[in-house]
UniProtKB/TrEMBL annotation:
InterPro entries: ConA-like_dom_sf (IPR013320), MAM_dom (IPR000998), MAM_domain-containing (IPR051560). The gene is Malrd1_2. Residues 9-164 form the MAM domain. GO terms for cellular component: membrane. It holds the Pfam family MAM. It comes from the Eukaryota. This is MALR1 protein.
Amino acid sequence: CFNSGSPWDRCDFETNQCKALPEFSLQPGWIRRNGQSGMGPPYSDHNGNESAYFLSLSSEMQSSSAALRTNIFLPTDEEHLWQIRFHYWVSQMSGTLMVGLQKHSEDTVTNIWQVSGELRNQWNVNTITINSTEKYEVIFVGMVETQRQGETVAIDDITFSEGC
């Protein structure tokens, strides 16, 4: 299901281009980097590659949140649910990652998944199925409460595909 690999539905952050996240390089608080950047963990992407790129919260953020917004997806129906799979790193003390859904007719973002303070510093993977009767955007929100060394939230390899 996720192996189609067509570029429009996969963001591995190896380049600055990603059709599903058209302006991720301009979204404040996030930085595209690799494990060799000297910015603390993670020291590799989710495949263990130190030179491969991912997104993480920039270390300039002082206890605040940063959002990452996809472009607009069309409504789903019973035959065409959408799935989003992504790899994430949430540092153990104060990191939080939330995924929200913003429907076209609503101003508010509905939280559909959240994780905080993972006990071990490592990459994890998650898949979310989305069901929306109207156009929608998906919003990733990373937060850190403290700027202690190594406190971060990172995202890698976001894949969007029709549910299978």
